[in-house]
Amino acid sequence: MVSTPPDGRAGIDAALVKRLLAAQFPQWGELPVTPVEVDGWDNRTYRLGDDKTVRLPTAASYALAVDKENHWLPRLAPSLPVAIPPVLARGVPGEGYPFPWSVRGWLAGETVARGRVDDMSALAVSVAGFLHALQRCETAGGPVAGEHSWYRGAAPDHYDAETRNCLHLLQGRVDTGRAAAVWEAALAAEWHGTPVWFHGDIAAGNLLVENGKLTAVIDFGTSGVGDPACDLVAAWGMFDGESREAFREAVDQDAGTWARARGWALWKALLVLSGCIDTDPEQAAVNRRVIDAVLADHDRFGSSRTA
Q: Are residues 248 and 235 in contact, defined by beta-carbon separation less than 8 angstroms?
């Protein structure tokens, strides 16, 4: 099932892609253009022939990532243990479309959200290995966390007002007392480490697997250089039980980093839940599970020195 874009994105379609290609990259203009089966929120992505994709930001705020990714992905790729999107070309605004866009190489595999992974603990260790390799990449000249990364990699206090508003909106519907304690702990655990590369959105939809094994990581739109805590949110959004413990052990981060990570996971889950709690029971249930897992994790590790 192809995801339906919000109303503001209706102007991006296969016909627009064909026009952009014909005008800017005529060598690819005759290739078939088809929507990918599962699309993202920040970009619309189309399959171009058998071995390429076209990726178009859906808003100006997401377009900030185009040049960042096009510049840095080729520089990061040689140091990483799995594939990341190969950059083939940069498109410019045209045909009524106002943002830069890109042509990428197609990466085979299924997202974890759709692919069957029999051994989630092994996947957790592979994801941790990818994060360690990413953090070892050279940071000189890299994009410091900020607006382009939606403040992933920065201090979570950028979203303090938003988080507190969500807690107010959800009063009586989630355990806002415990949630507030998680958030306060995240704010208190200030980061003073050496900046490293982070991905910013390690989630099931951005991990590709073949035969249950991690083969690629996609969508570096929120990537940058800063605090790696935001990359631990998969502990609650994707892993549980044994796989969560495997991830925790393999990723090997200190208690403060885990506290900030819980804050990142909580912020996002509260934000989504506050918008869907009365309209989308399935999505609400997903985010309630994340919140419950984060609260339980804080109860278990919140005062630990070795979380």
A: yes
Local confidence band at 273 (pLDDT 50, 70, 90 cut-offs): very high
What global pTM score does this model have?
0.93
- Residues 153, 297, single domain; the answer is yes
**Around Cβ 46, how many Cβ atoms within 10 Å?**
22
Residues 98 and 145 in one domain: no
CATH number of the structural domain spanning residue 293: 3.90.1200.10
Strands, sheet with 43-48, edge to edge from the N-terminal-most edge strand: 33-35, 43-48, 52-57, 101-105, 87-91
Q: Which helix (H) or strand (E) holds 55?
A: strand 52-57
DSSP state of 81: S
Q: Is pLDDT of 124 > 50?
A: yes
Is 101 in contact with 54 (CB distance < 8 Å)?
Answer: yes
Dihedral sign, CA of 137, 138, 139, 141?
A: negative
Instruction: Pick the closest to residue 77 from 108, 46, 105, 44 (CA basis).
Output: 105
Assess whether 182 and 230 both reside in one domain: yes
Q: What is the Cα–Cα distance from 301 to 307, expressed in whole angstroms?
A: 5
Tell me whether residue 200 is exposed, middle or buried, using C-beta atoms within 10 angstroms of its C-beta: 0 to 12, 13 to 18, 19 or more: buried
Q: Which domain holds residue 66?
A: 7-107
Q: In Å, what is the CA distance from 79 to each residue of 23, 128, 145, 161, 223?
A: 35, 15, 21, 38, 16
| H-run or E-run covering 147 | none
